[in-house]
Amino acid sequence: MIVFDLECRASGHRFEGWFGSSEDFADQQRRGLLTCPQCGDADVVKALMAPNVARKGNQLAVTKPEPAQAVASGPGLSPEALKAMRALAKMQAEALKDSRWVGDKFAEQSRAMHYGEREAESIHGQATLQEAKALVEEGIEVAPLPFPVAPPDKAN
Ligand SMILES: [Zn+2]
Known about the structure:
By secondary structure, the chain is α+β, with helices and mostly antiparallel strands. It has 4 helices and 5 strands; from the N terminus they run ββαβαβαβα. Strands 2-1-3 form a 3-stranded antiparallel sheet. Strands 4-5 form a two-stranded parallel ribbon. A hairpin with a 5-residue loop joins β1 and β2. The longest helix has 18 residues, at 79-96. The two termini are 31 Å apart. Bound molecules: zinc ion (ZN). Zinc ion (ZN) binds at residues 8, 10-11, 13, 36, 38-39, 41.
């Protein structure tokens, strides 16, 4: 699955669309199957990813580093599998964009937030299988990440 930010050309309403692939999106767009949930306009295009970009006037080319390039492209992976992995990596990157790395303090911090000992925020980090199990048993929502994340202090 792949998620696109979409907008209707008429009024610029933003919404998200989920597709099996970018071809799937193109196909639905071509056949006019995509409609704006707010005004029903069928002229739907992919929205620019960067917020607050001026619609008119200067054309601003926004290029984002492609995190998916970090995904291994070794032999044995079909193009389809690679594409799925890239989409997954992209979703993970999006999900972690506003999330704070807490390293091995993940279990401790998740628990503190769950019991209201500290302000809730989006965090990600490392936990042992045992810690993760304990969190789940306490009813604390944790989600495994499909790809390992390099700790920021070890990234360079
Ligand atoms: Zn609209």
